[in-house]
Design a protein that fits this description.
Elements (H helix, E strand, L loop, with lengths): L1 H19 L5 H14 L6 E11 L5 E11 L7 E8 L7 E5 L7 E6 L4 E4 L27 E11 L2 E10 L8 E7 L5 E7 L5 E13 L3 E11 L5 E11 L10 H5 L3
Antiparallel strand pairs: 1-2, 1-13, 2-3, 3-4, 4-5, 5-6, 7-8, 8-9, 9-10, 10-11, 11-12, 12-13
Length: 263
Amino acid sequence: MKIYFAMLLSAVVSFMSVASDSKLSPEQKGLEIAKERKARDEGWGNSTSKLTMILRNSQGKESVRALRIKSLEVADEGDKGLTIFDKPLDVKGTAFLNHSYTQKADDQWLFLPALKRVKRIASQNKSGPFMGSEFAYEDLSSFELDKYTFSYISDDKFGEQSVYVLEQTPTDRYSGYSKQKVWIDQQHYRPLKVEYYDRKGSLLKTLTLSDYQKYLEKYWRAHTLEMVNHQTNKSTLLKTELLAFNVGLTKSDFNQASLRRAK
């Protein structure tokens, strides 16, 4: 009980300091908000999910895919993720492995069953589209503080919710983005919208996150993500159909061999 109370008090103090300290510079306040966002999503362990991906072209024609994602939280290192496509037949068995890091570029691999080989995604290619969607390979990385510099812009409203608006600038020289603008709700520190700007500084894409649900009495997950490309008029919708935590995954489930045996 004492530990729980101390954690609760710490969270309240952190919230009050972020919300009310007018002495912080925009960079300091932006970083403090980002730290709180990160802190509130630590300790979830591992999870599996089933999702539906809907690709829409510029004419509105849709194609539907079924996929699964396995995730593993790694303390002080960055999360690991394994994405496996189940449908349709032309992508069945395709698997993507991501090892996120806190202070260096992610390691990423793609297994193509038709070629029966694992392809490493080079750092300079991570701004490319993931499996023909409007998500880039770099969008699939876990949120790590050292991957960005932050700056607080303003308080605002997003629908009925009070939000912080931040600008975060990728530190990776190979990033496809010059900056990102993020709307984070002030109550739970969940991202609600992200604008992505290309290397020329023009608005490229907007990600909207909605249908949040709480797991393990603490962790919020958006069940609907929509990425809209403003330059091509294409979009990708990701809907989570099933999500479970504490399923017994370990690091051995996230190596290159696991790509080939992914089922």
